[in-house]
Amino acid sequence: MMTPAAPGTKYIGRARHARALLRHLVKKGKRLGPLLIVTHDHPDPDAMASAWSLAHLAQNLCRIRTRIVYGGMIGRRENRIMAESLGVPAHPLRKGELAEYEHAALVDTQAPFRNNRFPPRRHPDILIDHHQRHPDTAADLAIIDESVGATTTLLGEALLLSGVRVPPALATAIVYGIGSETQNLGREAGRRDADVYRAFMSKANMRDLWRIANPRRPASFFQTLARSIREAFVVRGIIGVNLGPIAIPDQVAQTADFLLTHERMQWSIATGRFNGRLHVSLRTHDTEGAAGRLLKKLLGGGNRGGGHRMIAGGSQDVGADAPESTWREAEEAIVSAFLRSRGVQDPTQREYPFRSESREEPEIS
Fold first, then answer.
1. pTM score, two decimals?
2. What angle do helix axes 45-61 and 16-28 make, rounded to 10 degrees?
3. Which of 23, 30, 285, 342 has its Cβ near the most Cβ atoms within 10 Å?
C-alpha cells in the first residue's frame, strides 16, 4: 500500500505525473525488481538527484533492490563532492550490466538520445525526463514534462505526494539538483520547481549545500578558466570560445555559464574536445531563445543535441585520431553557423578583447 501524505502536507502543482508514477510503482510492486536506474552519461546533479529519488520511492513502495548507474564519469568538482559527501548511491556502468537486468528505468534522458548507454531499441519500464520528447521514445511508463525546470522536480512531487520519509542527504540532493539545473530558480524555473525546492529546503543540510557549491578546485580548473577568458571572442552581444582539449565534458557547459555573466552579452557558446567528440553548449538570457532547437539544428538534427529555451548541449563525433585541421574545421563550422543564425553576416569578424596583446584600458565603473 502507498503511504498516505503526511497530515498537513500541501501538494501544489499538477499532480497528474506524480500520481501516475506512484500508481505504477504500487501496481508493479516486487515484479519491478531488481530495478536498474540509468542516467545520462557524465551525470549532473539533476540526474543524480532524480535517480536517487526514484530509487528511494521504488525501495519503499515496491520493496525491491535498485542500482543507479551511469556512463562516463562524474567530472565537475561540485558534482563529485555532491556524490561523495551525500553518499549518492550511483555507480559507473559495468560492461554487460544492462543485459543482466530485466527491469530498467531512465531518468533525465531518453533511450534514443546519444547521451546515454541504454540500447535505443529497448523499452525501459519507467522513463522520467524534462527534455523534449524524442519521436522514438517509448516506455511502459513515460513521464516527460517540459514545463518544469528540472527532472528532480517531477520526482520531488512524487515523493511529497507519497508521504515517504526522505532522509536529509536525499533532501539536500533534491535541493541542489533543482538549484543547479535552474541556477537557484533563476533560469527556466516555474512555480512547481519553487514549491519542491522550498519543501525540501527545510529538510536539507545547509552545511553540505555550501560545501558542494563552494568546492576547493584543482589547478586545471583555473587553467581552463584562464583559457576561456583569454581566447573568448565577442561579437554583437555574443561571447564564445573554443576551449580545445578538455579534461571533462562538464567544462564546456561550465564555461558557457561563466561567459554569459558578462554584463553586455545575451548569448554564449562554448566548445571543447573530449574522447573524439566535439562538445557544444549554448546559453542565453532570452527566455524565448529556443536554444535546444537551435543547437539540434546546428549539429545536423537527430539525437546529437537538445535542451530548452535558455540552455542547450550536445556533441558530434570528430574522431580521436582526427588531425588538428579537422578539429578546427568542425569548431569553426559550428561557431560560424551559430553566429549566422543570430544575424551576424560575417562570422569571421570577431573581437578578442581579453588577449594579452590587447592594449585597451579596462573600463572602471
1. 0.82
2. 50
3. 342
